[in-house]
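Subject: Predicted fold for Beta-glucanase, 835 residues

User T.R. writes:
Posting the sequence so we have a shared reference for the thread.
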Amino acid sequence: MRNKLLRILPAMAAAAAVAFGMAVSACTTPDGQTENLTDKPLEGQMLADFTEGEPTTVFKSDGWGNGDPFNTYWTADNVAYTDDGAKLTISQPDEPIKVPVYDEDGVQTGETVYEYEGGEMRTYAHYGYGDYEVRMKPAKKVGTTSTFFVCTGNYEAENPVYDDKGNLINGNPWDEIDIEFLGKETTHVQFNYFVNGEGGHEYMYDLGFDASEEFHNYGFRWAEDYITWFVDGEPVYRIDFEEDEPAPSTAGRILMNYWCGTETAYEWMGEYSNPGNEGAEYEWVKTTAQVEWTDANDPNLPDEPDVFDKFQGDWADYEAIEPSFESSVEGLYTVENNGTSANITYTDVEANSYQNVSTNVTEVAADKNWVNLKLTNNGEETSRIRINVVNNEGASEVILNDYGYCGDYLLDKIDGNFAEVEPGETMDIVIKYKGTANSLELMIDSANTSGGPFSGDITISDIKFAKEGEIEDLPETPEAPEDLIINEQPVAVGGSITSNNGPYTAKVEDNALNVSYDSVLGNSYLNVELQSTAVASVNNTFKAKITNNGDAPVNIRVNVQATIASTENTNACNISATMNGETVYTDTQWGGSMFDNIAAGATVEIVIVYDSSKQATNVQFMIDSHKGDEQVHSGNVTISEIAFSDDGTVPEEPVTPPAGENVDLVFNHDDTNYYTIDKDGVAAGEINVTYTAVPGNCYKNVMAQVAELAKGNDTFTITITNNGDSAINARVDVLGTTAITVGENPNNQVCNVSHIATGGADAGYTDTTWGGTSISVGAGESITLTITYDENTERGAVTSILVFLDSHKGDSQTHAGNVTLSGFSFSSSAAGSEE
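User M.O. replies:
I've generated the structure tokens; pasting them so everyone works from the same file.
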């Protein structure tokens, strides 16, 4: 868990750096009201009483920095709790701290140097509208800032989704409300706020006293249409937001920090030098705001402390073995064993191949339960290595790892333990295991779930085994579940279940299949399989009920697999599917029907029509493993009333609604001017859209009003032509009148139900939870989307068409493109069925 934290939290902190960077040029001209304020006093329940010691609601930032203009690297040692409260300090390490900087592809682009270490506290939870109050005493020291604020940004999300390189793609908007004290001028306090990254609202308030001399109360009331700041219970500054004026609206963490700046910030805060005992002091924090969500990846959550027992002996007292590593596939890994080390080089390792190098350790590991080894990355790219301590004496291989660590941090564990070794880095790894080991196995870049092919150069050295504590018995290999009886035929359960060393625990009771899991990666595409050739091959419809017994929504992709491939990409022969009678997305290009956001406690009925001419063999359930994220998921589902039939109507080709007459749509954009719309040089009924600097997370679009054209129809067709030199990502929303709640999305206004894509390589995807039909259009490609929409829902009548071009990718990069939109038409599928 901690390894993942170290990747997430630096990014989280980096966004805050931008916030303070913008605050450097503070002004004192108020945007709001300072006189005749009548706001009632702040209220609130105690969130953190620092005079009682370390609270369970707050954690110390530790092990990252925010980047320029911060010259302070956060460490837990700079946060102290005493009977007087919490104190944040600044100290100077013996040597400056150098932190590598990487781009979104994981390539190092430079480094950030911090001359000082500082203290910061953050809440685990995110809070929304309400009253916020702190009792604090800022430091009187030139070059420093003492703060209290609420903040979030595109570095975190309640339900994070990551791309194949581990970059968050659905981050929050950057909203923030600040109280800041400059150590050079503690008779004043600065108020500020940000909305989706836009700041420039600084106001410097004259306190009439020196805040550094004794504790005072400071706070703010955050409402939907105003913010009022308070000092000692009195309202002193208020901003009111007009109906169309942007205001902070996204729940954020409560933060308190004490920092000094780089040269960039000298004009604002002064130059810092000579650290002393001074610091920002805090007695308590109160709030009326409710917890909106808590990040499960936060360190040391009260209900999940990162605590483990380390090896207590001295590894220097143990002798390193002389391994004899071999590649699982001849020539895939080149192995040079040399005494107590082995060098492994490779150039063509595929993701999800799970190939490895291994060495026999039967004799040296006898009566042992700990192993220590060093991994050195001699290459130029990060290597992700899964380490398995194995017993392979039985019918199947059993992985014995209990837990592993490097220094003070636990290693991620999915069967084996994962180590991510940076270029030039050596990791000293310790693993505790159960049972009797006879093989040590390393999957070097082959357990990656995406990317590749991979190359690298790794040295494995100083492998040592030891016994400490009791040796736990070899875990019993779970028995395979009993067969299901489907259509009066026995059907075996297989796939990635525990009896096959997979993460899913499968049990059959009362002819229903129960599946539980606690360590499924969202991009692993593992599955539970019904080996149902006898009944699947003579039918064309699969039916079942799925009950979500867990506490969170579950996402399931179901593939009806066949002997004959449906496309070059898949052997899944699904044609269409429904959930509780409503059509869901079936990907006929890459395979599978998507049953997403099945609510906790809900039971749904699924029906899949498949192409029996492809010789169906089995049914695969990818339970929370097809989400494409790097999160670890857990849950429990029951699949019951499973049956096959030949009830389904199987069309020879996907049904395309009848084409309507082309219409001329008038597209516009908002005042951000990200897109240039041009009708010159293109045919009638077409528009050309060019752009040079569209942020991938701005969600800007070009829009056409279509209320009259859409009325009475249920299909919209559009052709997207990419005139540029690189692929673009487009999303088309058919927008209704009213937003409704769908699954985890409380603001779904999009009426798209399904689509058919023709003319390009990508099949696209219609997201019925968050909305829109998304597709990748390659350079020079022209793709036609035929989108089915539904006006007969609570969203009401269709009002407009929105086209997002490279603005919905969720990244912070800017994108350029040249796109022609054409072939606009509306039609009704009912008209086609009457012919």
